[in-house]
Amino acid sequence: MKRRIATLLVGGLLAVTLVGGVAAAGPFEDGLAAFKRGDYATALRLLHPLADQGNPRARKQIGEMYEYGEGLPPDRAQAKMWFEKAADSFRPLADRGDADAQINLADMYERQEICSNVEWLPVCVMAAVQNYAMAAKWYQKAADQGNAYAQVQIAMKYKTGGMGLPKDVEQAMIWYHKAADQSSADAQGALGLMYEFGEGGLTDYAQALSWYHKAADQGDAFAEGSLGRMYVLGQGVPQDYAQALMWYRKAADQGYINAQVALGNMYESGRGVPQDFVQAHFWFNLSASHPTDTKTHDALTKERDEVAAKMTPAQIAEAQRLAREWAPK
Question: Domain limits of the chain?
Answer without folding.
Answer: 1-112, 275-329
